[in-house]
Amino acid sequence: MISRLRALWNAFFRRDQLDQDLDEELSVYSELVAAEKVRSGVSPADARRDTRREMGGLEQVRQNVRDIRAGVWLERLNQDLRYGVRTLSRDPGFTFTAVLTLALGIGACTAIFSMVNAVLIRSMPYGDPERLVYLYTPNSRYNLPPEDFGPAYGDLYDIKRESRSFQSMTAFDQSMFNLSEQGEAQRVSAARVDGDFFQTFQASPVIGRGITWEDNQPGHERVAVISHALWQSLFGSVSDILHRSLVLDGKSYQIVGVMPMAFEYPHNFDLPEGVPQYKTTQVWLPLALTPYQMAERDNFGGNAVARLKPGVSIAQAETELGTIMARLDKLLDPQMQGRGVLLENFIDSTVGHVRSLLWLLLGVVGLVLLIACGNAANLLLARSAGRMRELGVRAALGARRSRIVRQLLTETLLLGITAGGAGIAFAFLFLRFLPLLDPGNIPRLSEASLDMRVLLFTLALSLLTSLLTGVLPALNVSRANLVDLLAAAGNRGVAGAHGRTQGALIVIQTALVIVLLSSAGLLIRSYINVESVDTGFSQSTLTTSVQLDPRYSQPQKRAEFYRNFYSRLSAIPGVTAVGGINALPLSNSETMRPFQVEGYANQKDQLVQGRWITPGYFSAMSISLLAGRAFSNDDTAHTNRLVIVNLSFANKYFANRNPIGGHVTFEDHHVQSTTVIGVVGDVRHTSLEESPAPQIYMPVSEAADGYIVVRASRAPKIVATEIRSALHAIDPNLAASDIQTMGQLESAASARRRFQTSLLTVFAAVALLLALIGLYGLMAHSVGRRTREVGIRMALGAERSDVMLLMMKKAALLLALGLMCGLVVSWFAARAMQAFLFGVGGHDPVTILSVCALLAGCGLVAALIPARRAASIDPIQALRTE
User: Fold this and answer.
1) Which of 95, 126, 349, 860 is least crowded, fewest Cβ atoms below 10 Å from its Cβ?
2) What average pLDDT does range 174-187 have in this prediction?
3) Is residue 105 in a domain?
4) pLDDT at 666 over 90
5) What contacts 24+ positions apart, CB below 8 Å, involve 470-473?
6) Is there a single domain that holds both residue 368 and residue 330?
């Protein structure tokens, strides 16, 4: 077979050498013919000319030889394919089982690769995204993530003028607007951008134009570019869209462009400190900064993205910006100084947080495919053992060993290609159900599809699967003396070799299943731990937010609106409490304040999470009051004097002393001394998987923007409808966004963990099923092969229990070997996936023992059925068949 492979390699990749050999052979032959003509009296020149004419030229001869070789190769391939189709069609049960087994593995790999392709491989809808970077100006004085520090507009535009490392640079921020249309209002997500936004991303509208610097000038900012989705949903894809306008927060904006379908930047997962209600951008408006805003330096600005010039690296750009920022930092007040520069790769920032998850899933389905290949190889080994007499006859009739091996590989290729087609169908079904599993924070996961790259991957995977599946049966056949297989003894010897190979495959499959099951078990335990976390708030509380437009710019009007709205909400039947807060728990929004605690060894520039709440907030959220009292309506007049702290704050800063009456001083804008009047339970504000951080609550009146929380005894859907009706009755041009329960918000916070756990569990279950089918098939084949032996044992007095024990011993031995190997491999696998676990060790004994017990129990049950069949063999009938 090695010689044959070498010959095929030479045929395909050393054609020049073959042509050279052929030329040499033809040259020698032509010289012999010419010499014969010379001896006949022809002159040497005429002899050579006549010889070349008779042979028709070397190139024609060479082409004729190629055609003959190709014709022979194609004819043999055609014979192998026809014979393979006939052979497989005569055994539909085997063919269906083998194809289905491989199709499950190929389909799983194709589905996950389509996700990897959409998220990690497929090009983003921006021009040359490798040169895009995020720009941050972190302050070394504060222990906060660098992504929390967007550049101040004054610093950004100075950098833009002075830097030579960037081709372009843009600033933008996120906003939510009330969109009024035909007497109804809805919330839309918008991005306010400067004139270089679309140029930096190298993205052009499919209709009209983008936002320019002229649009950012005073008096010209009433223009808008809309997304392709909004053009379809709101305007029905009308062709005269450039003659239409949008009413946002009571102001009319002329539509000047429509972006391509794929461009909806920024998404909710693009920015670490983005607006929580954001999903995708639907409208782009001019940023329209005033001269004062463009020169402002004493606070954090918006978001900044830059495009590097060709040939400029991130390190080079950071070095240049460091010099510029060192000079700009000196223009700040001393207490604000300490800003630096950080550039982050745009692609890494967008997909870096999910890259390891997707590669993990692709590795998992790779193991599933290996298990499927092992199953199919076991089937082929069992089938080839039954075909040994047929193959021996073919060998006796003159078939070479290489031809028989090629025939077996051709049949395997047919199985692999057919399984690849079925795998594409499975992957298509998976992608249809993917939206049900989409956690919503994996970039472009919804764009996963079976494009040309995925189909080529499936084709390559099918060919590789065919090779992996067919190589062991082919090698087993090639090692046997096929002529001697016409004798019964030879058949037993080859069957024994097949049995050893099949047993080794079962051990490997068992080990791989242990790895998958233990990994899935650890993730399930982690997910249960996350879901069991005490969040500190009620799951049934309804939340929403209302953003007022410029009509309510006066404080009196805002106060009147919120008093009226809170009053109507409290009057809804079943509502027991209504409150408000500036940033909900798990909303990806934090407000950090520098502070000092009286009587505590304070550190310089220490920060604490701050929340502004209305007096009814704790009651509406069912947050427990542990000490002191809650805010009252009278406290809203003393916003800067009273605070309530959570348990973590009290335990850290008031250890071994009573926090009630203690003093906390804030040092952000000006020094404010406050008094602690209460302690409440901890709430998971930042993440379900992070311990509650110290938090401070400050009172605020109902006239503040933010989130509204409602606790009611009726069904959330009914109350949500009445909330919208109450708002519409006050002002039909305002819309309530994202009315949902806190339970839904908690579910969204754990969505990615649920996604990875669900997929890995499904694939582990498929792997377990495939392994059990393989063990059952091996035992059934072993029983069929040992029928004569069992008949003799029972004729000599063996009991049925003895026969069953004999058969079960082999299954138990294979399972034990597989379990031991799997435990060793799973130890390394658990260490590799430690970052995906929560509240459980990588070597959790409960999970590992449960997985081993599950696989051992299921494996023994799968082996019990063939063992019972062996015990029921009639010895007389078994010996008569021999």
Assistant:
1) 860
2) 84
3) no
4) no
5) 470/377, 470/380, 470/408, 470/409, 470/411, 470/412, 470/413, 471/409, 472/377, 472/380, 472/381, 472/501, 472/505, 473/377, 473/380, 473/381, 473/383, 473/384, 473/408, 473/412
6) no
Closest CA to 149 of 352, 320, 342: 342
The single-letter code of the amino acid at 242 is L
Confidence grade of residue 54 (pLDDT, cut at 50, 70, 90) = low
Closest CA to 748 of 687, 666, 839: 687
Residue 108 lies in a domain: no
Identity of the amino acid at 765: A
Domain shared by 802 and 875, yes or no: yes
Closest listed residue to residue 794, CA positions, set 880, 876, 867, 881: 876
Residue 12 has what pLDDT? 44
Query: Do 312 and 227 reside in the same domain of the chain?
Result: yes
**343 compared with 401, residue with greater pLDDT:** 343
Considering its fold, how many domains does the chain have in total?
4
Whether the Cβ atoms of residue 584 and residue 744 lie closer than 8 Å to each other? no
The last residue of one of the domains, among 54, 88, 122, is 88
pLDDT in tens, 789-824: 777 777 777 777 777 787 788 788 888 888 888 888
Q: Is the Cβ–Cβ distance between 339 and 139 less than 8 Å?
A: yes
* Whether residue 362 sits in one domain with residue 332: no
Quote the tokens at residue 160.
């833009």
- Three-state DSSP at 305 gives strand
Peptide bond between residue 125 and the one before it cis (omega within 30 degrees of 0)? no
CB atoms within 10 A of CB 661: 10
CA–CA gap between residue 659 and residue 678 (Å, rounded): 8
Neighbours of 773 (CB within 10 A): 20
Q: Mean pLDDT lowest for which of 362-371, 481-490, 505-514, 807-816?
A: 481-490
Residue closest to 576 by CA, chosen among 545, 607, 610, 622: 622
Q: Indicate if 509 and 431 belong to the same structural domain.
A: yes
Residue 146 in tokens: 């660098």
Note the pLDDT of residue 540: 92
pTM of structure: 0.79
* Token code pair at residue 881: 């068949």
Q: Locate 241 and state its tokens.
A: 């869209």
pLDDT score of 781 more than 80: no
CB 407 within 8 A of CB 380: no
Same-domain check for residues 677 and 784? no
Cβ–Cβ < 8 Å for 367, 508 = no
Q: What is the pLDDT of residues 531-554, one digit of tens each?
A: 888 999 999 999 998 888 888 888
Q: Is 120 inside a domain boundary?
A: no
Residues 6+ apart with CB under 8 A from 655: none
Query: Is the pLDDT assigned to residue 860 strictly greater than 70?
Result: yes
Residues 6 or more apart whose Cβ sits within 8 Å of residue 74: none
- b/e sequence 800-834, b meaning 16+ C-beta within 10 Å: eeebbebbbebbeebbebbbebbbeebeebbeebe
Q: How far apart are CA 877 and CA 845, in angstroms?
A: 50
The answer to whether residues 724 and 739 touch, using CB atoms and an 8 Å cutoff, is: yes
- Residues 564 and 680 occupy one common structural domain: yes
**Tens of pLDDT along 260-304?**
998 999 987 787 666 666 788 999 999 988 888 888 877 766 789
Task: Tell me which residue range forms the domain holding 154.
Answer: 138-340
Query: What does each C-alpha distance from 490 to 121, 389, 482, 485, 495 come to in angstroms?
Result: 53, 10, 9, 5, 8
Are residues 287 and 330 part of one domain? yes
Residue pair 383/91 in contact by the 8 Å Cβ criterion: yes
Based on DSSP, count helices (H) and strands (E) in the chain, helices before strands. Answer: 25, 21
- Measure CA 399 to chain center: 50
Q: Is residue 502 part of a domain?
A: yes
pLDDT at residue number 392:
64
Looking up tokens 């372009």, which residue turns up?
168
Give residue 400's pLDDT.
66
pLDDT in tens, 65-117: 555 555 555 566 666 677 777 777 777 877 888 888 889 999 999 999 999 99
Domain end among 315, 340, 365: 340
